[in-house]
Specification:
Length: about 140
């Protein structure tokens, strides 16, 4: 009985110590849309508590993108709300809600951003934008 209890406690402890991390990280790299030429690397981590963390690095050119972690990132956080099969990412900076809301579709391997635009007849349409690949 004593050995069985010790074994059960050991199994319980080890299962909690080596549990899986449910956070998913996605990566995108592309040309930065600014007046001066640069290349941007973006990383978004989706947390299990319906929040996300976005990190953005700027490098001088495309050849240097793989060493992006050597630079200091711009970090922003936000909340995730579900709207049908899409999710809305709302950004918060310095504890305040910003005007940035993104429509995304989250899958196990990809994170796709969608741009919304209004058609001439008043209907709103979605167009696929940036694609992020899962790295973790």
């Amino acid at each position: 009985m004593k050995n069985g209890l010790i074994t059960l406690l050991l199994i319980f402890f080890l299962s909690n110590a080596y549990g899986q991390n449910t956070d998913r990280t996605y990566l995108n790299h592309s040309h930065n849309i600014e007046p001066t030429y640069s290349y941007q690397v973006n990383e978004i981590t989706i947390h299990s508590d319906s929040t996300y963390t976005s990190k953005s690095w700027t490098v001088l050119n495309k050849k240097e993108w793989k060493s992006y972690k050597h630079n200091e990132p711009e970090i922003s956080n936000g909340k995730i709300n579900q709207n049908g099969k899409f999710y809305i990412l709302t950004e918060y900076r310095n504890g305040n809600k910003t005007d940035f809301n993104w429509t995304v579709k989250i899958s196990d391997k990809r994170l796709n951003f969608y741009y919304t635009y209004e058609m001439g007849n008043g209907k709103i349409k979605l167009k696929k934008g940036a694609k992020y690949k899962r790295i973790e």
